[in-house]
Write a structure and sequence with these properties.
alpha/beta
Length: about 325
Amino acid sequence: MPLDPVLQKFLGALAAAKGEGTRDTSVDARRRELAEFLGLSGPPAGQVASETVRIGVAGVERALRVYTPEALGTDDAPALLFFHGGGLVAGDLDTHDGICRALCRASGIRILSFDYPLAPEARFPQALEECVQTAVALARDARRWRIQEGAFLVGGDSAGANLAAVLCQELRVGPAPTPDVIAGQFLLCPILDYAGMSASKRSFGKGYLLDQETLDHDLRHYLPQGIDASDPRISPLRAPSLEGLATACIHTAEYDPLRDEGNAYAERLRDAGVRATYYCHPGMVHLFYGMAAILPYARQAFARMGEDIRGLLP
């Protein structure tokens, strides 16, 4: 369907603003721009309580923000470990606070948002390793974190969804395989193939919010010299086998350059015998779900996401 008219107007204004001067491509600018953009997430969703705590991982302490639907109280409940987007160089607990609250309210389950380290200060594979260790630690101490046994999900958006997808693969094939730790994976507009050039990347790689220039910029800062972007730990769509992975739900957007790789991943999962659902949001661009303050459809979309997250539970 046509691009949403609200988005069309917004993208036009954004293009006009960018045309006024030379673009700042520094990491600091990338972080500022994402934080400013996600101010469009809107006011915090009601009926959700939150608490920021610390969790020990890889010899350091990281922040973990726990979102709980007020109706749950302190009872054990299904939970989703969430990794924020931002190209692995930007974003934090605060930029994605509104998104996590909306997902928590819509799904009715606990959301655990992990503040993983960013590149270039922490290059590949540090963030991935810490995410894997955190998932295992939470699952092993489920009662402490009020996680219902057997109902632990993992997910994220954009580059955070990349981490979630790779995490599921690592738990299946790593040095000490523990695939049963994760009951399901929710991937929202995921980056799944940094090395490929799909039809949607060619069609929407410029002028539709997320562009190829930004993807390339982020990858340069994330990867150490000599690491190939086609490595499945970076581009999980390129894994030789997807058999035995956790049940998956993948959401993409019609005008997102990442759309085709999300669809391809869902198809490969199904071909490998993994239960996988896929939904493409019509008329939307990447990160549309972070624009609830100005985009009516974004508010509606969370209801569908919440339903699909619940559908991952055993």
